[in-house]
Design brief:
The structure is a homodimer of 252-residue chains.
Chain A: H1 3-13, E1 20-21, H2 23-30, H3 34-46, E2 50-52, E3 59-61, H4 63-75, H5 78-93, E4 96-103, E5 106-113, E6 128-129, H6 135-142, H7 146-154, H8 168-181, E7 184-187, E8 194-202, E9 208-217, H9 223-244
Antiparallel strand pairs in A: 1-3, 2-3, 4-5, 4-9, 5-6, 7-8, 8-9
Helix pairs in contact in A: 1-3, 2-3, 5-9, 6-8
Chain A binds a DNA duplex (30 and 30 nucleotides) through α3.
Chain lengths: 252, 252
DNA sequence: AATAGCGGTTCAAATAATGAACCGACAAGG
DNA sequence: CCTTGTCGGTTCATTATTTGAACCGCTATT
């Protein structure tokens, strides 16, 4: 593992439930030597990607990461553009809706609107979703370059539940179905009891850059509901794609 | 320079006006070898901190930086808390207002509300402000630990304009004035034609963690206006400090 | 058809990263 | 009050990684 990747791994140890850690803790979690860990942290600190509390000596993510994110968001305001549409879809369906962005061979959840119902699906911002086991992933693959899909289908497909699609041929069939319908469907492929439909958000070139998904408890989803959610998520995803690619918002 | 710092330097080359670059361009700007630059970029890409456009082969900041920023913001919602107060101040003064956070011996602009007027000061999000040459920096130093101020004052102070304070004694005087008034003032110390006042945003321990500033064209600022801006920026900065440290928003 | 730029790759040489052992400080327990 | 364990941090001989000149194939200009 290269030095740079080690440094980035350290950054990735910070999370919403654990946003601050001491040196030894970080070293243990990353399985790096304490001296190494410290040198990496100092390098990151010098550039503001990490900061150290003056009192507790614990480390946390620094203002530099916010700065970088702002630069990116100014150029590619994915969440900002999608937000109103995501909210509309959540209101329409009454179910949990989540928005994901492609990153490093997975989908990164960047926004969630939780259902108001007591029995609902919970998704965390920052969670990464595997491509073969979630509706979002399937929708993404269905609108990806075929070489990339082939490469992914050839890799080892982890089974998260008894329903996870792990055989290459079944996966390719599922992807083809999603491509022809415009949206994907997955029942309990990643978590037991969860049903999801998802549609791709497309770049100007017609390939997916992210996905929009509706997730509901299986108990609440029959064929009719699934179809309704599917059509709604496709409409919403198309709206987002349109605005991302410069199409003006519709009037009224 | 360590490998990690080189990688981070690459990230820092991206900016709001130039959010995408080719390999050779990046290598030239960073003064790294093309092969080195590419290896660093690949390491960053593997973790989603950088992404490469499939068509143009140009590089840009990736979704990973947004993810890290969300983790940090969940724990330390500086901008979110400050935003309404920053907007009020912008409305009150009619001038450009910018919010900065301390990071790696400089101030990082994390939010900007631009004046609606045709003749206005422009500040970019992500811009870093030197501590000795901007109103923000002076306000920050005026409320920093004296050892840190001493160390900074001993370093080489770059002159950005003919008005930049570069002599240690002048700097210390300016800082003392800011400390006693509660806000700092800088006329054309960083950019010609720009007048700014700034006040510190304080942590629970009373030391500055960031600043709030009002920037206006010198032509529009006389003594009375400067004083008004100064008082307004102090009020707004105090409100932000209070809410950051757990004080509830005032009613009405 | 010649030139110059681009993104990307190679491999011997050079430089940087590594980690076991160490320090002083602090806190809990006997 | 002395032991034990853990903390953050440092040192330096050993080791493994980074480095960059030269190269490739490609595309656009001239």
């Amino acid at each position: 593992m290269g030095t740079v990747e080690k440094a980035v791994s350290l950054l990735k140890l910070f999370s919403v439930p654990e946003p601050e850690m001491g040196l030894s803790d970080l070293a243990r979690k990353a399985s790096f030597d304490k001296a190494t860990t410290r040198r990496l942290l100092m390098a990151l600190t010098r550039h503001g990607l990490v900061e150290q509390d003056a009192d507790t000596r614990r480390y946390r993510l620094g203002a530099g990461v916010s700065r970088l994110a702002r630069i990116r968001d100014a150029h590619f305001p994915f969440v900002k553009i999608a937000l109103p549409i995501v909210r509309d879809l959540a209101a329409q369906t009454g179910e949990t809706v989540h928005l994901s962005e492609h990153s490093a061979d997975a989908l990164l959840t960047v926004h969630v609107e939780l259902s108001a119902r007591a029995n609902r699906v919970n998704v965390d911002v920052g969670q990464t979703l595997p491509l073969h086991a979630t509706a979002s992933g399937l929708a993404f693959l269905a609108f990806s370059r075929s070489e990339a899909v082939g490469r992914y289908a050839d890799s080892v497909l982890e089974a998260f539940t008894a329903h996870t699609v792990t055989r290459r041929e079944r996966l390719m069939d599922t992807i083809r179905l999603a491509a022809s319908r415009g949206y994907s469907e997955s029942a309990q492929g990643y978590e037991e009891g969860v049903h999801s439909v998802a549609a791709p958000i497309l770049a100007h070139d017609g390939y997916a850059i992210g996905t929009l998904a509706v997730a509901a408890p299986v108990s609440r989803v029959d064929g009719a509901a699934a179809s309704l959610h599917g059509q709604a998520v496709v409409r919403a995803a198309r709206l987002i794609s349109g605005r991302l690619n410069g199409e003006p918002p519709a009037r009224g």
